[in-house]
Design brief:
Helices cover about 35% and strands about 20% of the residues. The chain is built from nine helices and eight strands. It has a six-stranded parallel sheet, with helices on both faces. A two-stranded antiparallel sheet has the order 5-6. Strand 5 and strand 6 form a beta hairpin. The longest helix is centred in the last third of the chain and has 16 residues, at about 215-230. The model has no long low-confidence stretch (mean pLDDT about 95).
Length: about 230
């Protein structure tokens, strides 16, 4: 492979850029020198996609976008920039045109759907006492506690924001399914992956937080995508 592409990591609901911590350390150790993690406001798909585009525009050369959870919807919407060479989905939403994460979740409700609660300002939270079992059951209790307390709640309306022109229809893709996911139904992940016809799909026995519980295999997929996108 020629020079490695820049990697832009895009987080999802109930977390921030730091959710990628273990992946960042692993990729850096594998020689990826240009690593970036978007901090999305989680106020609307348009806002989050524009924040991601703004970061990509600052980068010279090829960019591989990697999205976790709702971050998959963001890279689907924002991945149309010409220097984006591929899209990697990590237990993530990959909506088609006119679809929203909320619509997809209603079609196949995840196991922990009832553990999400709105506050009086319209933001959606995972109940702290339910976070470990809902989002990250394969992490330690301490790791899950930190995630629960520092969770970044999305504005509830963001769930209903539809994708306009899905970048996965034009760009090569790779997908990781979490078979023990309780935040996105695993069959929903399989469905979204199948219709994208990705270059590669892997299944991990992991929670929704596979980026933290299984960073090695997730980085294997990212490294594969970086290599294959370079030759696309």
């Amino acid at each position: 492979m020629a020079d490695k592409p820049s990697i832009v990591l895009v987080h999802g609901f109930w977390g921030g850029a730091a959710h990628w911590g273990k992946v960042i350390v692993e990729l850096h150790g594998r020689g990826f020198g240009s690593l970036h993690a978007v901090e999305n406001p989680l106020t609307s798909l348009a806002d989050d996609a524009e924040r991601t585009r703004a970061m990509v525009r600052q980068i010279d050369g090829p960019v591989l976008l990697v999205g976790h959870s709702y971050g998959g919807a963001v890279i689907t919407e924002a991945g149309d920039l010409p220097n984006v060479t591929g899209l990697v989905y990590v237990a993530a939403f990959a909506p088609d045109a006119g679809e929203s994460p909320g619509q997809l979740s209603q079609e196949r409700p995840p196991a922990a759907f009832e553990n999400i609660a709105p506050d009086s300002d319209g933001y959606l939270w995972i109940k702290q006492e339910k976070f470990h079992e809902s989002f990250a059951q394969d992490l330690t209790a301490d790791e899950a506690l930190v995630m629960a307390v520092t969770q970044k709640a999305p504005l509830g309306s963001t769930f209903g924001d539809p994708v306009t022109a899905p970048a996965w229809r034009a760009k090569p893709t790779w997908y990781q399914v979490s078979t023990a996911d309780r935040m996105i139904h695993p069959d929903n992940e399989r469905h979204m992956a199948q219709r994208m016809a990705p270059r590669r799909t892997i299944e991990l026995d992991a929670s929704h937080a596979s980026l933290a519980s299984r960073p090695g295999p997730v980085c294997d997929l990212i490294e594969t995508a970086a290599r294959e996108a370079d030759g696309a």
